[in-house]
Design a protein that fits this description.
342 residues; TIM Barrel; seven-stranded parallel beta sheet; globular; binds coproporphyrinogen III
């Protein structure tokens, strides 16, 4: 059976559907009371390991809002299972055995993603079945640098000290780590696509931790390899390189179908930098959802208007939705996007 709503995939392929498609990063999550109800019974890790519950929470935002795509419920750090690193969420991620030295790197398993991530593939199948072709399902992974930073720091960080120290003092070993992670990520995305994923988003959340020169030297080549290989899987690839104010030019060199734009750059300016022949996704400030309804609606329409200069535009926030967001404001955002094209 074909998809009932192809507007998101059409836009990914550079066509302009009748209505601008909209989905929101982190659209399934703690700002929804029905998500919190599920989470009151199971831990985040248990949730990620239950295909049925993943399908349930993946569909929760679609039942409330007129969204044009679903995103698989999982996390960018589940892939660390395949490297033999243990990650816990409470709710912030914590890696018990961070990778800091050459021998730590040599101790990682750079094997096959499929041997360890079958539970994610089962979640993909369950989500596809539950969606019943209503809208496409987006699969995802973290970019090599973002993934490596959690592995090296052991969790979130403000200054990326351990990651950068490793990169500066042991550049060859850091390169090997990035290469090994990239190979696993390619394998992991292939596994997701085999189970029916319709598009891929690669999250480079922490690109701006590096200077533009260091990003070009130490991270971009690995991300380029990941995007190039992901493209061969036959589904559209979205590259979200957060830190666009300084990295938009580098992001524009990626062979992705869609470039994600964060809120640090005006969308019209991002389109000038990447060129009007590219498809862009973004970029409303997530905190605009805390503005009075008429201000939120005006800001939403302004982003939509700027997006008309691109080849095609997928409406999204410029980063993940805040857990403190009022779901009514999210509804207003989605409806404002669709009504503007009605
Ligand atoms: O709708 C969706 O997008 C759901 C799937 C999803 C999650 N995380 C669920 C999640 C996706 C696509 C992610 C991506 C992710 N995870 C990123 C990249 C996107 C970004 O925001 O930059 C990053 C950096 C992570 C790492 C991560 N996972 C952090 C920092 C945290 C804790 C902080 C937080 O947001 O609370 C997580 C846990 C996590 N991942 C939660 C959810 C819903 C909260 C866990 C809970 O329910 O307690």
């Amino acid at each position: 059976m074909p998809l009932a709503n192809t507007s998101f995939l059409d836009a990914c392929r550079g066509q302009r559907p009748a209505r601008t498609p909209v989905w929101v990063m982190r659209q399934a999550g703690r700002y929804l009371p029905e998500y919190r109800a599920v989470r009151s019974k199971v831990s985040f890790t248990e949730l990620c390991h239950s295909p049925q519950l993943c399908a349930e929470v993946t569909l929760q935002p679609l039942d409330r809002f007129d969204l044009d795509a679903a995103i698989l419920f999982s996390d960018i750090l589940t892939v660390l299972d395949a490297l033999g690193a243990e990650v816990e969420f409470n709710p912030a991620p914590h890696v018990a055995n961070p990778v800091r030295t050459l021998s730590d790197i040599d101790g990682l398993q750079f094997g096959k993603a499929d041997d360890h991530l079958g539970y994610v593939y089962d979640a993909v199948s369950a989500c596809k079945k539950a969606l019943n072709n209503r809208v496409p399902l987006i699969g995802f992974c973290g970019a090599p640098l973002t993934t490596a930073s959690y592995l090296v720091e052991g969790g979130g960080t403000k200054d990326f000290l351990n990651t950068k120290r490793l990169m500066f003092t042991e550049p060859a070993a850091f390169g090997r780590l990035m290469e090994g992670i990239t190979t696993i990520l390619i394998d992991y995305l292939a596994g997701q696509v085999r189970q029916g994923i319709d598009a891929i988003q690669i999250f480079e959340s922490w690109a701006a931790a590096l200077t533009p020169e260091d990003y070009r030297e130490h991270a971009l080549p690995h991300l380029t390899r990941l995007v190039t290989e992901a493209k061969k899987l036959g589904v559209p690839v979205i590259a979200f390189v957060r830190g666009n104010a300084t990295l938009m030019e580098q992001a524009a060199t990626l062979p992705a179908d869609v470039l994600g734009v964060d809120w640090s750059i005006q969308l019209s300016r991002a389109i000038e930098v990447v060129g009007a022949d590219k498809v862009v996704q973004g970029n409303l400030d997530p905190i605009a959802l805390f503005a009075p309804p008429e201000v939120l609606a005006a800001k939403t329409r302004a982003v939509l208007q700027e997006g008309r200069a691109a080849k095609a535009h997928i409406f999204n926030l410029g980063h993940g939705i805040s857990r403190h967001t009022d779901p009514e404001q999210m509804k207003l955002l989605v409806d404002t996007v669709h009504e503007a094209d009605a």
